[in-house]
Amino acid sequence: MELPQPYVIDKIYSYSTCIRESNLHINGCCPVCREGKSWGSKRRMFYFLNDDYIYCHKCGRGWNTFYWVKEVTGLSFKQIKEELKDYDYDPKFRLMVDSIEERHFEMPVLPGECVNLKDNLQTEYFSSYSIVKKAKEYCQSRRLFSAINTPKTFYCCVNDKFHNNRLIIPFYNSSGKIESYISRKLLDSDNKAKYLVKFGSKKPIFNLDKIDENYPYIFIFEGQIDSMFVKNGIAVSGIILTDEQDETLTKLFPFHNKIWVLDNYRFEKEEVIDSIKEKLKNNETLFFYPNEFADSKDLNEYCVKKGLDSVNPDLLISGCFSGDKGLLKLAD
User: Structural domains in the chain?
Assistant: First the structure.
Protein backbone atom coordinates (compact mmCIF):
# COMPACT_ATOMS: atom_id res chain seq x y z
CA MET A 1 0.00 0.00 0.00
CA GLU A 2 1.53 3.30 -1.11
CA LEU A 3 1.01 6.27 1.19
CA PRO A 4 0.97 9.92 0.03
CA GLN A 5 4.15 11.75 0.96
CA PRO A 6 2.39 14.54 2.93
CA TYR A 7 0.70 11.90 5.09
CA VAL A 8 4.03 10.21 5.87
CA ILE A 9 5.67 13.56 6.65
CA ASP A 10 2.81 14.43 9.03
CA LYS A 11 3.39 11.15 10.88
CA ILE A 12 7.12 11.83 11.12
CA TYR A 13 6.44 15.24 12.67
CA SER A 14 3.89 13.66 15.04
CA TYR A 15 6.10 10.82 16.30
CA SER A 16 9.68 12.02 15.78
CA THR A 17 11.58 15.07 17.00
CA CYS A 18 14.69 17.14 16.18
CA ILE A 19 13.67 16.98 12.53
CA ARG A 20 15.72 18.36 9.66
CA GLU A 21 14.66 18.54 6.04
CA SER A 22 16.65 18.47 2.82
CA ASN A 23 15.78 17.92 -0.82
CA LEU A 24 16.88 14.29 -0.48
CA HIS A 25 15.62 13.15 2.90
CA ILE A 26 14.00 14.02 6.22
CA ASN A 27 16.17 13.24 9.23
CA GLY A 28 14.96 12.86 12.82
CA CYS A 29 14.90 10.76 15.98
CA CYS A 30 13.62 7.22 15.52
CA PRO A 31 10.35 6.60 17.41
CA VAL A 32 10.84 2.83 17.14
CA CYS A 33 14.16 2.39 18.99
CA ARG A 34 13.96 5.82 20.70
CA GLU A 35 17.63 6.18 19.72
CA GLY A 36 18.61 3.97 22.65
CA LYS A 37 19.07 6.50 25.46
CA SER A 38 19.70 9.36 23.06
CA TRP A 39 16.13 10.54 22.30
CA GLY A 40 16.23 14.24 21.54
CA SER A 41 19.96 14.38 20.91
CA LYS A 42 20.65 11.81 18.17
CA ARG A 43 18.94 11.75 14.75
CA ARG A 44 19.57 8.48 13.01
CA MET A 45 16.28 7.90 11.17
CA PHE A 46 16.05 8.95 7.53
CA TYR A 47 13.05 9.18 5.23
CA PHE A 48 14.52 8.96 1.70
CA LEU A 49 12.06 11.01 -0.33
CA ASN A 50 12.88 9.75 -3.81
CA ASP A 51 12.80 6.10 -2.75
CA ASP A 52 9.84 6.35 -0.33
CA TYR A 53 11.85 4.38 2.19
CA ILE A 54 12.64 4.87 5.89
CA TYR A 55 15.81 3.59 7.54
CA CYS A 56 17.24 3.90 11.06
CA HIS A 57 21.00 3.61 11.52
CA LYS A 58 20.49 2.84 15.22
CA CYS A 59 17.93 0.05 14.71
CA GLY A 60 19.66 -1.20 11.59
CA ARG A 61 16.15 -1.61 10.22
CA GLY A 62 14.36 -0.33 7.14
CA TRP A 63 10.69 0.00 6.25
CA ASN A 64 8.54 0.96 3.33
CA THR A 65 6.41 3.87 4.54
CA PHE A 66 3.24 1.83 5.14
CA TYR A 67 4.93 -0.62 7.53
CA TRP A 68 6.68 2.24 9.34
CA VAL A 69 3.41 4.13 9.88
CA LYS A 70 1.72 0.90 10.94
CA GLU A 71 4.44 0.19 13.53
CA VAL A 72 4.78 3.65 15.06
CA THR A 73 1.04 4.43 15.19
CA GLY A 74 -0.29 0.98 16.05
CA LEU A 75 -2.96 1.44 13.36
CA SER A 76 -4.19 -1.50 11.31
CA PHE A 77 -4.37 -1.58 7.51
CA LYS A 78 -8.10 -0.85 7.69
CA GLN A 79 -7.62 2.05 10.11
CA ILE A 80 -4.92 3.65 7.95
CA LYS A 81 -7.18 3.30 4.92
CA GLU A 82 -10.04 4.95 6.79
CA GLU A 83 -7.76 7.75 7.99
CA LEU A 84 -6.66 8.46 4.42
CA LYS A 85 -10.27 8.91 3.28
CA ASP A 86 -10.50 12.14 5.27
CA TYR A 87 -6.94 13.26 4.63
CA ASP A 88 -6.83 16.41 2.52
CA TYR A 89 -3.66 16.88 0.45
CA ASP A 90 -2.41 17.88 -2.98
CA PRO A 91 -1.64 14.61 -4.85
CA LYS A 92 1.07 16.44 -6.84
CA PHE A 93 2.87 17.61 -3.70
CA ARG A 94 6.55 16.71 -3.37
CA LEU A 95 8.75 18.14 -0.65
CA MET A 96 11.59 20.19 -2.10
CA VAL A 97 13.69 22.03 0.47
CA ASP A 98 17.19 23.39 0.11
CA SER A 99 19.59 21.18 2.00
CA ILE A 100 20.39 22.50 5.49
CA GLU A 101 23.81 20.91 5.46
CA GLU A 102 25.80 18.80 3.06
CA ARG A 103 25.46 15.23 4.36
CA HIS A 104 25.18 12.17 2.20
CA PHE A 105 23.82 8.80 3.21
CA GLU A 106 23.81 5.69 1.10
CA MET A 107 20.54 3.84 0.83
CA PRO A 108 20.68 0.50 2.63
CA VAL A 109 20.95 -2.32 0.14
CA LEU A 110 18.82 -4.88 1.96
CA PRO A 111 15.25 -5.41 0.71
CA GLY A 112 12.26 -4.15 2.69
CA GLU A 113 12.32 -4.81 6.42
CA CYS A 114 14.93 -7.40 7.37
CA VAL A 115 15.54 -9.12 10.69
CA ASN A 116 19.15 -9.80 11.71
CA LEU A 117 19.10 -13.50 12.60
CA LYS A 118 22.18 -13.20 14.83
CA ASP A 119 20.65 -10.36 16.87
CA ASN A 120 18.64 -11.90 19.71
CA LEU A 121 16.84 -8.61 20.43
CA GLN A 122 15.57 -8.44 16.85
CA THR A 123 14.53 -12.10 16.66
CA GLU A 124 12.73 -11.82 20.00
CA TYR A 125 10.93 -8.67 18.82
CA PHE A 126 9.77 -10.54 15.70
CA SER A 127 9.05 -13.79 17.57
CA SER A 128 5.42 -13.69 16.42
CA TYR A 129 6.62 -14.02 12.82
CA SER A 130 6.84 -17.75 12.10
CA ILE A 131 9.08 -17.10 9.09
CA VAL A 132 11.78 -15.58 11.33
CA LYS A 133 11.81 -18.72 13.48
CA LYS A 134 11.91 -20.90 10.36
CA ALA A 135 14.82 -18.91 8.89
CA LYS A 136 16.82 -19.20 12.10
CA GLU A 137 16.14 -22.94 12.36
CA TYR A 138 17.20 -23.37 8.73
CA CYS A 139 20.54 -21.66 9.39
CA GLN A 140 21.10 -23.79 12.47
CA SER A 141 20.22 -27.06 10.72
CA ARG A 142 22.57 -26.27 7.84
CA ARG A 143 25.34 -25.17 10.25
CA LEU A 144 25.48 -21.73 8.65
CA PHE A 145 26.02 -19.80 11.87
CA SER A 146 29.14 -21.79 12.77
CA ALA A 147 30.69 -22.45 9.34
CA ILE A 148 34.33 -21.37 9.05
CA ASN A 149 33.70 -18.98 6.14
CA THR A 150 30.26 -17.69 7.13
CA PRO A 151 29.36 -14.01 6.59
CA LYS A 152 28.87 -11.66 9.55
CA THR A 153 25.17 -12.43 9.72
CA PHE A 154 22.05 -13.51 7.85
CA TYR A 155 18.70 -11.78 7.52
CA CYS A 156 15.08 -12.75 7.08
CA CYS A 157 12.98 -10.42 4.95
CA VAL A 158 9.44 -9.95 6.24
CA ASN A 159 7.80 -7.45 3.89
CA ASP A 160 9.42 -7.02 0.46
CA LYS A 161 7.48 -7.57 -2.77
CA PHE A 162 10.01 -10.04 -4.21
CA HIS A 163 12.15 -11.21 -1.28
CA ASN A 164 9.43 -11.53 1.34
CA ASN A 165 9.66 -14.63 3.61
CA ARG A 166 13.13 -15.53 2.34
CA LEU A 167 16.59 -15.93 3.81
CA ILE A 168 18.83 -13.00 2.85
CA ILE A 169 22.54 -13.81 2.40
CA PRO A 170 24.53 -10.54 2.33
CA PHE A 171 27.60 -9.82 0.23
CA TYR A 172 30.24 -7.65 1.92
CA ASN A 173 32.87 -5.49 0.25
CA SER A 174 36.46 -4.98 1.39
CA SER A 175 35.30 -2.17 3.71
CA GLY A 176 32.97 -4.52 5.56
CA LYS A 177 29.81 -2.93 4.17
CA ILE A 178 26.97 -4.84 2.53
CA GLU A 179 27.05 -4.18 -1.21
CA SER A 180 24.53 -6.74 -2.43
CA TYR A 181 22.61 -9.85 -1.42
CA ILE A 182 20.92 -12.99 -2.62
CA SER A 183 17.72 -14.45 -1.19
CA ARG A 184 16.84 -18.14 -0.78
CA LYS A 185 13.31 -19.49 -0.60
CA LEU A 186 12.22 -21.02 2.71
CA LEU A 187 8.58 -21.89 2.03
CA ASP A 188 7.20 -24.54 -0.32
CA SER A 189 4.45 -22.07 -1.21
CA ASP A 190 7.06 -19.64 -2.59
CA ASN A 191 6.68 -20.04 -6.36
CA LYS A 192 9.64 -17.82 -7.22
CA ALA A 193 13.09 -19.12 -8.09
CA LYS A 194 15.06 -20.89 -5.35
CA TYR A 195 17.59 -18.06 -5.37
CA LEU A 196 17.00 -14.43 -6.30
CA VAL A 197 19.85 -11.97 -6.81
CA LYS A 198 19.33 -8.33 -5.86
CA PHE A 199 17.57 -6.53 -8.70
CA GLY A 200 20.06 -4.76 -10.97
CA SER A 201 23.04 -6.60 -9.52
CA LYS A 202 25.77 -7.82 -11.89
CA LYS A 203 26.41 -11.04 -9.96
CA PRO A 204 28.99 -9.94 -7.41
CA ILE A 205 31.38 -12.48 -5.92
CA PHE A 206 30.36 -13.80 -2.51
CA ASN A 207 33.02 -13.79 0.26
CA LEU A 208 35.55 -12.00 -1.94
CA ASP A 209 36.45 -9.95 1.14
CA LYS A 210 37.49 -13.10 3.02
CA ILE A 211 40.17 -14.41 0.68
CA ASP A 212 43.54 -14.91 2.37
CA GLU A 213 46.13 -13.54 -0.06
CA ASN A 214 48.84 -15.72 1.50
CA TYR A 215 46.97 -18.97 0.80
CA PRO A 216 47.57 -19.91 -2.86
CA TYR A 217 44.18 -21.52 -3.64
CA ILE A 218 40.72 -20.10 -4.28
CA PHE A 219 37.77 -22.51 -4.29
CA ILE A 220 34.98 -21.37 -6.61
CA PHE A 221 31.47 -22.58 -5.76
CA GLU A 222 28.20 -22.19 -7.57
CA GLY A 223 26.22 -21.51 -4.38
CA GLN A 224 26.94 -19.28 -1.41
CA ILE A 225 26.05 -21.86 1.26
CA ASP A 226 28.62 -24.45 0.11
CA SER A 227 31.37 -21.82 -0.07
CA MET A 228 31.00 -21.13 3.67
CA PHE A 229 32.63 -24.43 4.63
CA VAL A 230 36.18 -24.06 3.31
CA LYS A 231 38.94 -21.48 3.64
CA ASN A 232 39.11 -19.15 0.61
CA GLY A 233 35.73 -20.36 -0.61
CA ILE A 234 33.83 -17.92 -2.85
CA ALA A 235 30.57 -18.23 -4.80
CA VAL A 236 29.64 -16.80 -8.19
CA SER A 237 25.93 -17.77 -8.49
CA GLY A 238 26.46 -20.06 -11.44
CA ILE A 239 28.88 -22.50 -13.03
CA ILE A 240 30.45 -19.96 -15.39
CA LEU A 241 32.24 -16.75 -14.46
CA THR A 242 30.83 -13.58 -15.97
CA ASP A 243 33.34 -11.29 -17.70
CA GLU A 244 33.19 -8.92 -14.71
CA GLN A 245 33.78 -11.74 -12.18
CA ASP A 246 36.67 -13.17 -14.20
CA GLU A 247 38.25 -9.73 -14.55
CA THR A 248 37.91 -9.06 -10.81
CA LEU A 249 39.53 -12.35 -9.78
CA THR A 250 42.33 -11.98 -12.31
CA LYS A 251 43.07 -8.43 -11.21
CA LEU A 252 43.00 -9.08 -7.46
CA PHE A 253 44.48 -12.58 -7.33
CA PRO A 254 46.47 -13.21 -10.54
CA PHE A 255 48.73 -15.90 -9.03
CA HIS A 256 46.18 -17.94 -7.06
CA ASN A 257 45.23 -21.44 -8.25
CA LYS A 258 41.51 -21.55 -8.91
CA ILE A 259 39.56 -24.76 -8.23
CA TRP A 260 35.89 -25.24 -9.13
CA VAL A 261 33.87 -27.08 -6.45
CA LEU A 262 30.53 -27.58 -8.18
CA ASP A 263 27.76 -29.86 -6.94
CA ASN A 264 28.60 -33.57 -7.15
CA TYR A 265 28.54 -34.49 -10.85
CA ARG A 266 26.99 -37.88 -10.00
CA PHE A 267 23.71 -36.09 -9.22
CA GLU A 268 23.75 -33.66 -12.12
CA LYS A 269 21.80 -33.50 -15.39
CA GLU A 270 23.37 -34.08 -18.79
CA GLU A 271 23.62 -30.39 -19.66
CA VAL A 272 25.63 -29.75 -16.50
CA ILE A 273 27.94 -32.67 -17.33
CA ASP A 274 28.49 -31.08 -20.75
CA SER A 275 29.52 -27.81 -19.04
CA ILE A 276 31.94 -29.74 -16.82
CA LYS A 277 33.49 -31.34 -19.90
CA GLU A 278 34.01 -27.91 -21.45
CA LYS A 279 35.76 -26.70 -18.32
CA LEU A 280 38.08 -29.72 -18.35
CA LYS A 281 38.86 -29.21 -22.03
CA ASN A 282 39.83 -25.62 -21.16
CA ASN A 283 42.21 -27.03 -18.49
CA GLU A 284 40.15 -25.66 -15.60
CA THR A 285 40.52 -27.63 -12.36
CA LEU A 286 37.50 -29.33 -10.76
CA PHE A 287 36.87 -31.22 -7.53
CA PHE A 288 35.43 -34.71 -8.18
CA TYR A 289 33.93 -35.79 -4.80
CA PRO A 290 36.09 -38.87 -4.19
CA ASN A 291 35.78 -41.54 -1.47
CA GLU A 292 33.86 -40.29 1.57
CA PHE A 293 32.43 -37.34 -0.41
CA ALA A 294 30.88 -39.54 -3.11
CA ASP A 295 27.43 -39.91 -1.53
CA SER A 296 26.93 -36.21 -0.85
CA LYS A 297 25.23 -33.91 -3.31
CA ASP A 298 27.34 -30.91 -2.31
CA LEU A 299 29.78 -29.73 0.33
CA ASN A 300 27.12 -28.44 2.72
CA GLU A 301 25.33 -31.79 2.71
CA TYR A 302 28.62 -33.52 3.46
CA CYS A 303 29.32 -31.20 6.41
CA VAL A 304 25.82 -31.61 7.83
CA LYS A 305 26.14 -35.42 7.65
CA LYS A 306 29.55 -35.35 9.33
CA GLY A 307 28.76 -32.58 11.83
CA LEU A 308 31.55 -30.38 10.46
CA ASP A 309 31.91 -26.61 10.26
CA SER A 310 34.81 -26.80 7.81
CA VAL A 311 36.53 -29.09 5.33
CA ASN A 312 40.29 -29.38 5.19
CA PRO A 313 41.21 -27.68 1.89
CA ASP A 314 43.93 -30.31 1.34
CA LEU A 315 41.15 -32.89 0.90
CA LEU A 316 39.64 -30.80 -1.89
CA ILE A 317 42.98 -30.23 -3.57
CA SER A 318 43.79 -33.96 -3.54
CA GLY A 319 40.44 -34.75 -5.20
CA CYS A 320 40.95 -32.44 -8.18
CA PHE A 321 41.51 -33.13 -11.87
CA SER A 322 41.80 -31.12 -15.07
CA GLY A 323 42.29 -31.71 -18.80
CA ASP A 324 42.37 -35.28 -20.16
CA LYS A 325 42.76 -36.82 -16.68
CA GLY A 326 39.58 -35.11 -15.63
CA LEU A 327 37.72 -36.28 -18.74
CA LEU A 328 38.82 -39.85 -18.07
CA LYS A 329 37.71 -39.55 -14.45
CA LEU A 330 34.36 -38.21 -15.54
CA ALA A 331 33.88 -41.21 -17.84
CA ASP A 332 34.47 -43.76 -15.02
Answer: 5-85 (3.90.580.10), 114-197 (no CATH), 208-331 (3.40.1360)
pLDDT in the model for residue 160 = 84
Task: With beta carbons less than 8 A apart as the criterion, state whether 197 and 204 touch.
Answer: no
| Cα diameter, the chain | 76
Contacts (Cβ under 8 Å, ≥6 apart) of 102? none
Whole-prediction pTM value?
0.70
The reported pLDDT for the residue numbered 35 is 85
- Mean pLDDT of all residues in the chain? 89
Among 192, 212, 181, which residue's Cα sits nearest to residue 313?
212
- Asked whether the predicted pLDDT for residue 57 surpasses 90, the reply is no
Q: What is the dihedral of CA 159, 164, 166, 172, to 10 degrees?
A: -70
Write down the pLDDT at residue 302: 98
Give the whole-angstrom CA distance, residue 185 versus residue 194: 5
Distance (Å, whole) CA 200 – CA 107: 15
Higher-confidence residue: 176 or 325?
A: 325
Q: In whole angstroms, give the CA distance from residue 65 to residue 71.
A: 10
DSSP state of 205: P
